[in-house]
Write a structure and sequence with these properties.
The protein is mainly alpha-helical. The protein has 6 helices and 2 strands; from the N terminus they run αααββααα. The chain has a two-stranded antiparallel ribbon. The longest helix has 30 residues, at about 1-30. The chain is rod-shaped, with a radius of gyration of 25 Å.
Length: about 130
Amino acid sequence: MIFRLLDRGLTLVCIAAAVVAVVALFAGPSLIGAKKSTPAAAAKSGTPADPGAAVFASAGCGGCHTLKAAGASGAIGPNLDQLRPDAATVSAIVRSGGGPMPAFAGRLSDAQITAVSAYVASVAGR
């Protein structure tokens, strides 16, 4: 008799736990207030929100440069957060290269160079 009551009670507990688990799987992120993607996180995940961030990631800029907004911590080239270059400066260097940096004029389109230049100028040091 006691085992039947215990069995029924445990059955109800298991069913309730299963319902909670299913609800948590479907509604969990919105219930706990999961954060929306930031540009840096998007860049890391491969789906940057800004076209310039996409160029920064795909061209491998983060391998050499530090840029916090892009989640990049390269140490070969200048730290863009410290340098805080304007878009014209970034565009000129990306096109023609400088020091150990190669020219990207033949690798990136004018639109890509414009996008990455605007992106770096808008997020560097912020």
